[in-house]
Amino acid sequence: MKIRSAETLVTSPGRNFVTLRITTDDGITGLGDATLNGRELAVASYLRDHVVPLLIDRDAARIEDTWQYLYRGAYWRRGPVTMAAIAAVDTALWDIKAKAAGMPLYQLLGGASRTGALAYGHASGRDVPELLDSVRAHLAKGYRAIRIQTGIPGLDSVYGVAASSAAGGERYDYEPARRSTTAVNRPVEEVWDTRAYLRHLPNVFEAVRAEFGPELPLLHDGHHRMTPIQAAKLGKALEPYDLFWLEDATPGEDQAALRLIRQHTTTPLAIGEVFNSVYDYTTLLGERLIDYVRSAVTHTGGVTPMRKLLDFAAVYGIRSGLHGPTDISPVGMAAALHLDMAVHNFGIQEYMQHAAQTLEVFRTSYTFTDGLLHPSDTPGIGVTYDDDVAATFPYEPAYLPVNRLKDGTVHDW
Ligand code: EZ4
Ligand code: CO
């Protein structure tokens, strides 16, 4: 079974996605997600110009060898662009292998360890009443675990907080890429104030617990904006509210920062959505500085290294909490769900739900029932790509926002 062709597909049904489609000489196709939010075309070029020519005529069954060839053979290892490109190849080859076997991918990974993957959704509100409505809307949609993000008095807008107060539910799940309104496309800039955030957040969790009781698992994302001592202070302040996790408290490069946070708080910690290699985790796992691994299949080199990373985490009793925002395509999401089903040390899966346009291009078979996701038993990963619909959504430049402090200083994410 040789690789006959590999196509790099770019489309923007609500937001930009880069997908690799590999076709074998016996006509089996596999899909892999290569979407890197705000830097999409760099990965598309890496694939088209440097990877696709190497794939033609390779044995499609040799997934590990192809991974090592692209990783070790490039000389330049790691980095989000390289690892997203390798992830797309790896995921597409797993899709092919599972289709050839006539099995859903999770069967090849060892079979189901559970009936479904507990998902968490994103509730948000500019103020507490709006947030409580958003939590209610998520509960009504079947979520059994909920991330809480909130507006902050004195700040105009906060990343991760839906701009509209509509309580319908859909709007809270769909976080579109920000398109600049200026003639030259540049990221939107937001003003950030960590002290105002630290003062406000415990009150918000107090209100959520008062309304919904002690049982509901609640999560929060700090988006890398705190110093270690600020994060330690927040973790302590939130202990009465029994968080499932505090995510991305400090900038991701600094593994040692988690030591300081850990010394001060029992709030569980999660990090890793911007990581792209197991080497980003060696201190964190070896010293048990975190409780959940947040990486995405899409940004960490694919199913092959993600399985190894989760097995490494399992040695230390650390569980998965794979990244699942709408800028990971349904292909990347489905790949994560197969791992969620198979690994023993599953923790939770982020699930934001893609826009309707996105799901017209990417036809999914995964299901969300009673708060649990299931990848379906469709052979392969279980996602198909509609070229005709994709062609109606050409690429549009879009960026994540940039943060500045009140004095204009560029701040961490
Ligand atoms: O900001 O995927 O936990 N989820 C998140 C996401 C990320 C985006 C960045 O591209 O933090 O919403
Ligand atoms: Co996050």
Description of the molecule:
The strands form 4 sheets. This protein has an 8-stranded parallel beta barrel, surrounded by 4 helices. It is of the alpha/beta class and 413 residues long. It has 14 helices and 17 strands. Strand 1 and strand 2 (17-24) form a beta hairpin. Helices cover 36% and strands 19% of the residues. Helix 1 packs across helix 3 (80-101), helix 2 packs antiparallel against helix 3 (80-101) and helix 8 runs parallel beside helix 9. The chain has 2 domains: 3-107, Enolase-like, domain 1 (2-Layer Sandwich); 110-377, TIM Barrel (Alpha-Beta Barrel), CATH 3.20.20.120. It has helices at 40-55, 63-72, 80-101, 105-108, 128-140, 170-173, 194-212, 228-238, 257-264, 282-286, 303-315, 330-342, 356-361, 387-391; strands spanning 3-11, 17-24, 29-33, 117-125, 146-150, 189-192, 218-221, 245-247, 269-271, 292-293, 319-322, 346-350, 362-364, 367-369, 372-374, 383-385, 402-405. It binds (2S,3R,4R)-2,3,4,5-tetrahydroxy-N-oxo-pentanamide (EZ4) and cobalt (II) ion.
